[in-house]
Automatic annotation (TrEMBL):
Keywords: Oxidoreductase
Lineage: Bacteria, Bacillati, Actinomycetota, Actinomycetes, Streptosporangiales
GO terms of molecular function: oxidoreductase activity
Domain NADPH-dependent FMN reductase-like: 2-148
The protein, known as: NADPH-dependent FMN reductase
Listed EC numbers: 1.-.-.-
InterPro entries: Flavoprotein-like_sf, FMN_Rdtase-like_dom, NAD(P)H-dep_reductase
Length: 195
């Protein structure tokens, strides 16, 4: 069984990310029932701005919140990042969470589900560059949810419902398949066993 973490990349009050992550988890449960998918909500970790003395690559974590975060991420074989687009990039909370740790990310595949006015495509491009530095290969397939077409709103300040069209379901299924395949393929690398 492959274990995949669905990371909610925004901590902003009123965010739509949690609802998007729940949609991802629902499709994953339906399409990939033999694999294990968990939602990892950054808001549940309340990470401060990076406050570690040593660089993350050293693995010398001095704070309890860093150790808790590292242990949570270490359990997974791969990830699906759910991110909005803030000013052409990812939220600061997501960048901060990525920067806190290093080895726990290495050699695990990732997929990106973006949402925003333009599907968070620019944020996804920035995220791909960051993930590459962390030795996280991001799969090509990407979901880009439009606030205009894939959500319904009851009021401008309410998160609204996620209502993706059938093509989004198909794209997400392909993304999940890719993440599973690559996560399994990278297992020998994570275990330090090279053929």
């Amino acid at each position: 069984m492959t274990k995949i973490g669905i990371i909610v990349g925004s901590t902003r009050p009123g965010r739509r990310g949690r609802a998007v992550a729940e949609w991802v988890a629902s499709v994953a449960a339906q399409e990939r029932p033999t694999d294990d998918f968990d939602i990892i909500d950054l808001a549940d970790f309340a990470l401060p701005l990076l406050d570690e003395t040593h660089p993350a690559a050293s693995g010398l974590y001095g704070n309890a919140h860093t150790t808790r975060w590292a242990e949570a991420i270490a359990r997974y074989d791969g990830f699906v990042f759910v991110t909005p687009e803030y000013n052409h990039s990812i939220p600061g909370a997501l960048k901060n969470a990525l920067d806190f740790i290093y080895a726990e990310w290495n050699n695990k595949a990732a997929g990106i589900v973006g949402y925003g006015l333009h599907g968070a495509t620019r944020a996804a491009e920035h995220l791909r560059l960051i993930l590459a530095e962390l030795k996280v290969p991001a799969v090509r397939t990407q979901v880009a949810l439009s606030l205009h077409h894939d959500f319904t709103f009851t009021a401008p300040t309410e998160p609204g419902d996620v209502t993706p069209g059938p093509h989004q379901h198909q794209t997400l299924t392909a993304l999940l398949d890719d993440v599973i395949i690559w996560s399994r393929a990278l297992q020998p690398v994570r275990e330090g066993v090279l053929a």
